[in-house]
Amino acid sequence: MEWAYGAVVIMVDIAALDEFLKSVERAAYLTARMSLPTSEDAMDAVQDSMLKLTQQYAHRPNSEWAPLFYRILRNTVIDAQRRQTTKKRLFPLAADHMGEDEDQRLDAPSPEPGLDRLIDSEQMRHRLEAAIVALPDRQREAFLLRTLDCLNVAQTAQAMGCTTGSVKTHYFRAIQALRKKLSEHEP
Fold first, then answer.
1. CA–CA separation, 184 vs 5, rounded Å?
2. pLDDT tens digits, 46-89
3. For labelling, which of 69, 80, 87, 138 has a CA lying 20 to 30 Å from the CA of 152?
4. 9, containing H or E segment
5. 80-83: Cβ within 8 A, 24+ apart
């Protein structure tokens, strides 16, 4: 696909962009879901981020898409959180019903009883999700970008808008907090 900016024609590899978006879709959803109260909000944030990347940055080199996309997603999630805070402040009676989500994974029932191995791993997954959600925002963001989205330190720093040293600090603190929280459940 070609885009024209004045006298400059920019070529965009639509197939590569499509493949990139498919490759980050699930991880981006999980990242957004850990920060937003409903799955619908998370899906909206991911879709908005994908659209912004496609409209504004598709002409950039493929190697820049991941940090750009996660930076856009981060900003979209922060905007959604701000809107929800404002709604809660303006409409306090409706705040009791905000964030209710019928398919919340953290409250989902366990799988069939009797499958001890599956139940243990499912319970562990729920404990891990709850521990990740409980992390401070920047620690959660660094942890998810580094582990779930497999970004390197430099890409994570670019996505978070901070230095590589800050990424290392947030990531280290997140790992320490998760280890502590999850070791509390060990027999």
1. 57
2. 999 999 999 999 989 989 999 999 999 999 999 998 888 877 77
3. 80
4. strand 8-11
5. 80/36, 80/41, 80/44, 80/45, 81/35, 81/36
Ramachandran angles phi, psi of 10, nearest 5°: -110, 130
In this structure, are residues 73 and 31 in contact, taking their beta carbons and an 8 Å threshold?
Answer: yes
- Check the CA dihedral 49-61-71-75 and report its sign: negative
User: How far apart, in whole angstroms, are the C-alpha atoms of residue 137 and residue 142?
Assistant: 9
What is the C-alpha to C-alpha distance for residues 110 and 126, in angstroms, rounded to an integer? Answer: 9
Which residues does the chain have with pLDDT short of 70? Answer: 1-11, 90-120, 185-187
* pTM attached to this predicted model: 0.65
Residues, the chain, total? 187
Number of domains the chain contains: 2
CA-CA distance, 48 to 79, in Å (whole number)?
A: 11
Question: Is 82:90 a contact under the CB 8 Å cutoff?
Answer: no
Q: What is the domain-level CATH number for residue 160?
A: 1.10.10.10
Residue that finishes a domain, picked among 44, 66, 95: 95
Helices (H), the chain: 14-33, 39-57, 65-90, 116-134, 137-143, 153-160, 164-183
The rounded Cα 7 to chain-centroid distance in angstroms is: 38
